[in-house]
């Protein structure tokens, strides 16, 4: 079977992906108008904040589909079953799927040609280019997309106005009260809002509203709704709706049984849908029908939850009802309203502005009997009543995943954490608003017992951290005697060693703690395949004097070590035997070096680019900031290694977005990204805060690191940790102090900074600690005969030999 | 019953005992390597004060590193994990608990006048 898909947006992507996953064996040809494959339009605004176009690209759909980009279908010949493209290419089909999406609505006002629209990456490039020479911007449309566009203009540094024809902002999602609270938030950010008026005309440098108001506008963006792109269907004689949209049945089939329509161009049940969830559902239904199934699309949940301009806005279910219960806090900027049936027993819908915590818990309960009083439910999720969901309740509406499917993934497919659930069920992979719900379902399903660190402790790492902190425990022996069993293992001992080091500092080889350390921490060096160690002195920010470089070279030469430049801008010296380590450290320490903690679950390096001191593009001193950060956090023990970088301009030469925390200079301050890593599953860091001063930057990183150290699981990098807790929650905790722990986190970091000392120097100066640095306890002067090297490219390389008795 | 881990055992007098180090030289739950007649041996002191000796070669990586592993217990049995890839071996029998086909050699130990001795004969 030959399938041709006209259009390559998210709905087309989902269609192809579903066909591939279900083993479709025919040929698929996708013809997309944009110059790039399908990308995540929901995240479009992040493109202007520095997310690359490549990152927005949806994953390869996994089918051997032929994709033609930069061309589009202009004619359908239903008799011959062929399509013709603009470039004159003709393609035969057995099944044609129209996934042509929609086009922004441009009101027919004089001067409309001067305005931009907000839909594609090319649109955003054009807006960015125009903004470079402008100071003011006007967005026409105060709905969801309009506020996104306004946020984008504001981010580009324009004084921004929003013009909404309706009586308040986001009239489709919130009522008048919610609109008023939302307007307060938006105005506090410095935006100007005009409601209840339309546009009269656009002139050079200004717009004139219907009520006569004139606004200076260097850039004008239309974001006043979309229209389905149904022109292909019209020309082919297929029925379309009165206000547009290709008419389809429940199987997404048009009047021609060989032609389907999915996504924003389709009119299903008399409705055109513009949200990603319903569009994905349509694509899955069409794929099922193509494969001979009988799935149907009978309408969709139009609930939305999003963060616009830093404000949570959510609505779900019906936005009207016999009874409503409202909570309004104009000071805190919170508005919540629930609609219930006239017998006050059934939840019909709700609106949240400023605090969307009830949304996740209550949305699945729409149409069901209330489990608590409506006024209690307004506070669900924040210490309010526990809400249990039935199996058929939807949890992820973007991907149509129910509570029951989540339960099955946990019980039958062994998913034990949020990432596994995302992989098994696709829940949480689109907008991410259901991630907290996934975590609470895991807990409700008793997955909590899997938090047990090992057979010796039934606790998770973060629980152990709290036990140690609150009870003031300072030794492993007391901890395991009071809270564990047995004598520990290679899993729990290093975890406890790290917790003790994070909480009260002290030398990692002091007393009983020496026995807890993995071999790297025990020898303050990195074990290599032949049992020798490598030594990495700290080179903060990668900046080093010629004298110090010479010392490293001399030490390497004198001890016969292999040298290699690391990815973290320092130098690794390989091939040291244990008895050589203190001698090497002594030489390095005397020359002003200290431990680089390459062996520890600790801060490794803060990499930097050249920065403003030398680079003609640099806008800030990235090297100076990198050095300051590396010296501040050196020696900080954490659940996993920590890597960082600072770039002096948006060119990002330090690759900061591949780090646990990355800092990128802007004209007006520092942007802080968190949760990136390379490794097995690379991930780009996400933007946590923008335009920070030096002090604000350091304070934010302090709190980020300490909160991570307290609450992450064993060997959980910051990326997986953020995936678990959610970036919004993290921001609330460390910027908004939502848990009231910031003062505590700040104090903990001050203790760390004040208590820092160099572990190498402390070891070299302590005869008791030096005693363990011998190859053989009964022959301290004898080097290990199993360690043998050969020469490769003028340096040593290990050879493994089995030593047998002579 | 294996004599390993016991202070003395029947027939000990017939063995050749090699002194390794003083009792106090070993940190509880930490090992040390010793060279005995060309063999590398890893000796350990457990939390309850017992001594054990096993081969120092990690059979998985081929490196002589067992003495640098973390000592603990698995179901009450004293164990050491190789620092390379963390396979866990019984200090009593030398058998790898994750892979019973593989084992470290074990050696009898005893303490004489505060000195740890190992027999390799």
From TrEMBL, chain A:
Matches recorded under InterPro entries: BFD-like_2Fe2S-bd_dom, BFD-like_2Fe2S-bd_dom_sf, FAD/NAD-bd_sf, FAD/NAD-binding_dom, FAD/NAD-linked_Rdtase_dimer_sf, NasD-like, NiRdtase/SiRdtase_haem-b_fer, Nit/Sulf_reduc_fer-like_dom_sf
Protein name per UniProt: assimilatory sulfite reductase (ferredoxin)
Cofactor note: Binds 1 [4Fe-4S] cluster per subunit.
BFD-like [2Fe-2S]-binding domain sequence ranges: 395-443
Family stated for the protein in its record: Belongs to the nitrite and sulfite reductase 4Fe-4S domain family.
Function: Catalyzes the reduction of sulfite to sulfide, a step in the biosynthesis of sulfur-containing amino acids and cofactors.
Domain NADH-rubredoxin oxidoreductase C-terminal: 303-365
Domain (Nitrite/sulphite reductase 4Fe-4S): residue spans on this chain: 600-734
Species of origin: Sphaerisporangium album
PANTHER family: NITRITE REDUCTASE (NADH) LARGE SUBUNIT
Highest taxon in the source lineage: Bacteria
Start and end residues of each FAD/NAD(P)-binding domain: 1-266
GO molecular function: 2 iron, 2 sulfur cluster binding; 4 iron, 4 sulfur cluster binding; flavin adenine dinucleotide binding; heme binding; metal ion binding; NADP binding; nitrite reductase activity; sulfite reductase (ferredoxin) activity
Domain (Nitrite/Sulfite reductase ferredoxin-like): residue spans on this chain: 528-589
Family matches, as Pfam families: Fer2_BFD (PF04324), NIR_SIR (PF01077), NIR_SIR_ferr (PF03460), Pyr_redox_2 (PF07992), Rubredoxin_C (PF18267)
Keyword Ligase attributed: no
Annotated siroheme binding sites: 653
Reactions catalysed: hydrogen sulfide + 6 oxidized [2Fe-2S]-[ferredoxin] + 3 H2O = sulfite + 6 reduced [2Fe-2S]-[ferredoxin] + 7 H(+)
UniProt-annotated binding residues for [4Fe-4S] cluster: 609, 615, 649, 653
One of the GO biological process terms: energy derivation by oxidation of organic compounds
Family annotation (SUPFAM superfamilies): FAD/NAD(P)-binding domain, Nitrite and sulphite reductase 4Fe-4S domain-like, Nitrite/Sulfite reductase N-terminal domain-like
Broadest EC class assigned to this enzyme: oxidoreductase
EC number of the protein: 1.8.7.1
From TrEMBL, chain B:
One annotated GO molecular function: monooxygenase activity
Record keywords, A-Z: 2Fe-2S, Iron, Iron-sulfur, Metal-binding, Nitrate assimilation, Oxidoreductase
A Pfam family recorded for this sequence: Rieske_2
InterPro entries for this protein: NirD (IPR017881), Rieske-like_NirD (IPR012748), Rieske_2Fe-2S (IPR017941), Rieske_2Fe-2S_sf (IPR036922)
Record-given protein name: Nitrite reductase (NAD(P)H) small subunit
Coiled coil: none
GO biological process, alphabetically ordered: nitrate assimilation
Domain Rieske, chain residue ranges per copy: 18-118
